[in-house]
Write a structure and sequence with these properties.
Length: 203
């Protein structure tokens, strides 16, 4: 396998997932600042022009962060980062979906349409007028999540999962770009610190 890596939260998710699995694979950097992800040869790996992409041993390419992580879990089930039973897998996938749609996507687009506008305006449809509203949506859902985290070490209770990795990587990205956690979200801040103490968070 080979990982096509770049700046950004999505590649960070895959790198952290691999590190938690104890897997080390070849990595090739794609210069997204120069737009290399939007032209050949990267478009052959992912016609959507995004990173990361995972090249399999049979020459097939996988893209979409969650799909890549699920593939890695299937080929190396332990340590489990999604689940070992239908119930535990469904719980992780439920939370991953919630976080991706309600927090990660609006947070990221809030950046693309404001601080990142110069980079993204010629690469995708951008809506600068929507930026602040998207950031507010992400913050609102984080406040909702704060209540859900009471008494829990991780998103899925006592289990550290893909859901934690996904949210940690995107919050790290957001915090670095002016979308800080509300200081009143004490449960989330404690969780963020807990995950940040894992050596793999620096992957």
């Amino acid at each position: 396998m080979k990982l096509y890596n770049s700046l950004g939260p999505n590649p960070h998710v895959v790198r952290m997932f691999l590190a938690e699995k104890g897997l080390s694979i070849p990595v090739e950097q794609v210069d997204v600042l120069a737009g290399d992800n939007r032209r050949e040869p990267h478009l052959k790996r992912n016609p959507h022009g995004q990173t990361p992409a995972l090249e399999l041993d049979n020459g097939q390419f996988l893209s979409e962060t969650v799909a890549i992580c699920e593939y890695i879990e299937d080929i190396q089930p332990l340590p489990s980062l999604i689940g070992t039973t239908p119930e535990s897998k469904a719980e992780c996938r439920m939370w991953t979906r919630r976080l991706d749609l309600n927090i990660c996507e609006p947070l990221t687009n809030g950046h693309r349409y404001s601080g990142g506008l110069a980079l993204f305006k010629d690469r995708m449809v951008t809506l600068p007028e929507a930026a602040e509203g998207l950031k507010r949506i992400a913050q609102d859902r984080l406040k909702w999540l704060e209540g859900q985290m009471a008494g829990k070490d991780f998103i899925c209770g006592s289990r550290f999962t893909l859901a934690d990795i996904l949210l940690f990587c995107f919050l790290s990205f957001g915090i670095a770009r002016g979308q800080a956690l509300d200081p009143q979200c004490l449960n989330l801040q404690a969780w963020f610190n807990r995950v940040g103490e894992r050596p793999t968070s620096k992957a």
